[in-house]
Amino acid sequence: MPPVTDNGLLPNLVYSFSDAHMQLSRGGWSREVTARELPAATELAGVNMYLKPGGVRELHWHQQAEWAFLICGSARITAVDAQGRNTIADIGQGDLWYFPPGLPHSIQGLERGAEFLLVFDDGQFSDLNTLSVSDWAAHTPREVLAANFGVPQDTFRHLPKEQVYIYEAPVPGPIETQRVQSPYGSVPLPFSHRLLAQAPLVSSGGTVRIADSSNFRISRKIAAALVEIKPGAMRELHWHPNADEWQYYLSGQGRMTAFAGNGAARTYNVRAGDVGYVPLAYGHYIQNTGTDSIWFLELFRSDRFADVSLSQWLALTPPALVESNLHVGRGLIDALDPIQQPVVASPPQPES
């Protein structure tokens, strides 16, 4: 049951990937949650994709930035920038990658295959409408292709007739055998980041790992946090001053309450596989109602992560103001902590 404090009208802020259409191919599958499925989600869109061992998300590029989190398995990414500098990297569980808009790249599943989350900085984005090398070649005259590459037209007699999107291929060999040396060198900033291996911010109820342009420098359009909420704990009452929040729940179950002002608040149940969304500056919190930890991602269309803690704000405000505004006594004032605790543990219950 929702809390009795829920009131007023808010749009739906949760949608499950399990309700999304699945695009199947021999090399894997994909499904997406965009503003079409979740109309409130205007700033970001997400794609859940799986590549079989050897499966390839073909050579392609986007008008949008691409941010990714490797959920399980392992993958290999390749990319080339506008200066002819290239990169190749193997990605493991809990790692990120990021490709700026317009940067050509590919993704391939390794021995165990790969499941990952892709996030794009446009709520209307669809992964089925990207710019793909097979699609472009299929819609370019053979004589033009021959002139461009300096080869006979017959070279292109077996070209795919449409976008291949995801396809089957052998598992590639060790990365050192696949490197192509560019005369212009390698990209100056890494396109991958080991988020799960990063030392977390530890608080009483869980952990937080933040990746933005301060520690993952290439990621200039999307910032993220990987949050753990232990059983009974809560992502504290807070809001974000710089962007909407797009969430993906990796494991566990709980509920999120969003406050929109003017007496409007609504609670939503969330579980693994769900996408949540919180508009800019809406107050919100997330409670773990299950027996296992919740792990989820917070994502923002911004170069930096920023949040405002209600508890920290009150702790750093003159106590008399807090007391007169909220009609509370010293009990609350003494409990306020000026050091932010992003995830707070459940308070001890009195003995019966």
TrEMBL record:
<dbReference type="GO" id="GO:0046872">
    <property type="term" value="F:metal ion binding"/>
</dbReference>
<dbReference type="InterPro" id="IPR014710">
    <property type="entry name" value="RmlC-like_jellyroll"/>
</dbReference>
<dbReference type="InterPro" id="IPR017774">
    <property type="entry name" value="Bicupin_oxalate_deCO2ase/Oxase"/>
</dbReference>
<protein>
    <submittedName>
        <fullName>Oxalate decarboxylase</fullName>
        <ecNumber>4.1.1.2</ecNumber>
    </submittedName>
</protein>
<feature type="domain" description="Cupin type-1">
    <location>
        <begin position="15"/>
        <end position="157"/>
    </location>
</feature>
<feature type="binding site">
    <location>
        <position position="62"/>
    </location>
    <ligand>
        <name>Mn(2+) 1</name>
    </ligand>
</feature>
<feature type="binding site">
    <location>
        <position position="245"/>
    </location>
    <ligand>
        <name>Mn(2+) 2</name>
    </ligand>
</feature>
<dbReference type="InterPro" id="IPR051610">
    <property type="entry name" value="GPI/OXD"/>
</dbReference>
<feature type="binding site">
    <location>
        <position position="240"/>
    </location>
    <ligand>
        <name>Mn(2+) 2</name>
    </ligand>
</feature>
<dbReference type="InterPro" id="IPR006045">
    <property type="entry name" value="Cupin_1"/>
</dbReference>
<feature type="binding site">
    <location>
        <position position="284"/>
    </location>
    <ligand>
        <name>Mn(2+) 2</name>
    </ligand>
</feature>
<dbReference type="GO" id="GO:0033609">
    <property type="term" value="P:oxalate metabolic process"/>
</dbReference>
<feature type="binding site">
    <location>
        <position position="60"/>
    </location>
    <ligand>
        <name>Mn(2+) 1</name>
    </ligand>
</feature>
<feature type="binding site">
    <location>
        <position position="238"/>
    </location>
    <ligand>
        <name>Mn(2+) 2</name>
    </ligand>
</feature>
<keyword id="KW-0479">Metal-binding</keyword>
<dbReference type="InterPro" id="IPR011051">
    <property type="entry name" value="RmlC_Cupin_sf"/>
</dbReference>
<feature type="binding site">
    <location>
        <position position="66"/>
    </location>
    <ligand>
        <name>Mn(2+) 1</name>
    </ligand>
</feature>
<dbReference type="Pfam" id="PF00190">
    <property type="entry name" value="Cupin_1"/>
</dbReference>
<feature type="domain" description="Cupin type-1">
    <location>
        <begin position="193"/>
        <end position="334"/>
    </location>
</feature>
<feature type="active site" description="Proton donor">
    <location>
        <position position="298"/>
    </location>
</feature>
<keyword id="KW-0464">Manganese</keyword>
<keyword id="KW-0456">Lyase</keyword>
<feature type="binding site">
    <location>
        <position position="105"/>
    </location>
    <ligand>
        <name>Mn(2+) 1</name>
    </ligand>
</feature>
<dbReference type="GO" id="GO:0046564">
    <property type="term" value="F:oxalate decarboxylase activity"/>
</dbReference>
